[in-house]
Write a structure and sequence with these properties.
The chain has 6 helices and 5 strands; from the N terminus they run βαβαβααβαβα. By secondary structure, it is an alpha/beta fold.
Amino acid sequence: MNKNSKTIVLHACCAICSGYPVSYLQEAGYRVVVYFYNPNIYPAAEYQKRLEAERSLCKAFDVKLIEAEYNPEDFYNAARGLENEPEKGARCDKCFELRLRKTAEFAKKSGIEEFTTSIVISPHKNFAKLTEIGRKIAAEYGLIYQAIDFKKKDGFLKTNKISRELELYRQNYCGCEFSIRN
Ligand code: SF4
């Protein structure tokens, strides 16, 4: 590894979505620290499957994984009153903000200036909205939010290829209990 490389915190929403972002950032010369904070995931057994997949991914890419606490109440507090919102609606904005804020807090505490998220790789997620939220939080903490649209240049196909090669667990809903009905 280049000893001059900078460090970035990558918030990982799941192993499927974070495979390509990890490889992209490594190729861009970053030392990557993966931060897994996803209290939105329901139920707990599903959370464990996704965490286990993230562990496998990080091992394969030789990156450090930080496993933040799993406290579903954090999510339910953020989503209160928005339970019936559709995916891509106001509940998702709160969910993004919760997870990115916690990631920024970790980066700040760790002395790491830059952070980003794998959430953006999904075609179902709004890059502009995530950028707006990420930049707002970065400004609050005096950090840099790297707004990288990982889905560009076939990023979504590439991340799926990585997950298939590593035989990672693949979920079929976004994460929260409200997304199971979508
Ligand atoms: S649908 Fe996904 S992004 Fe939206 S609130 Fe649920 S878990 Fe979060």
